[in-house]
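Bench log, entry 3. Co-assembly request; chain sequences pasted below exactly as received.
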Amino acid sequence: SAVISQKPSRDICQRGTSLTIQCQVDSQVTMMFWYRQQPGQSLTLIATANQGSEATYESGFVIDKFPISRPNLTFSTLTVSNMSPEDSSIYLCSVDLWDSNEQYFGPGTRLTVT
Amino acid sequence: GIQVEQSPPDLILQEGANSTLRCNFSDSVNNLQWFHQNPWGQLINLFYIPSGTKQNGRLSATTVATERYSLLYISSSQTTDSGVYFCAVEGGSNYQLIWGAGTKLIIKP
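Structure output for the full assembly:
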């Protein structure tokens, strides 16, 4: 298994500002994923972040709005830029363990934009 | 792409009851996982079960890959079992999970 932490756990932000969410894993992993979960909904993949390459974004998500960094094998950040109330969601990072093919999730960041 | 359907969407039970949650998927998959999202939003891994049967305490899961479905059984439900149960599958080579809409389970004391 993997132990994943996220910072901040929650935040309330004003529209037009940006927030950077950090994800830290207790072991080296190749693949990290960022998800968004809007209230009462299932998870939607934002992007896949592999160390040493540019993040791959899913349809409907763009780098200018959700820039991602992946400086090493244990850490990644997601920035939510120029926020609007529609960005209010839980943002989750996950990792794929190469030896088991299971995905494990961080505790999430609960974002409210006013 | 692969479609994942979960049923029922909502389930309300008394403490002590048993339940069966279903996950249907539309194509062959490499990976299937069941998760429990607790009321605080934390996603907890329950089972990694691309095929076969696994048990963990009061929970068990069975995946019949040839018939493209998986079942999650919860016996002797407790209030702490409340939350949303998600099924997610991975079908391609990119390790991306495709998620069902979830089953919201409420266990009443």
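Chain B touches chain A at residues 30-31, 33, 35, 41-43, 45, 48, 86, 88, 90, 94-97, 99-102 (CB under 8 Å). Chain B has no helices and eleven strands.
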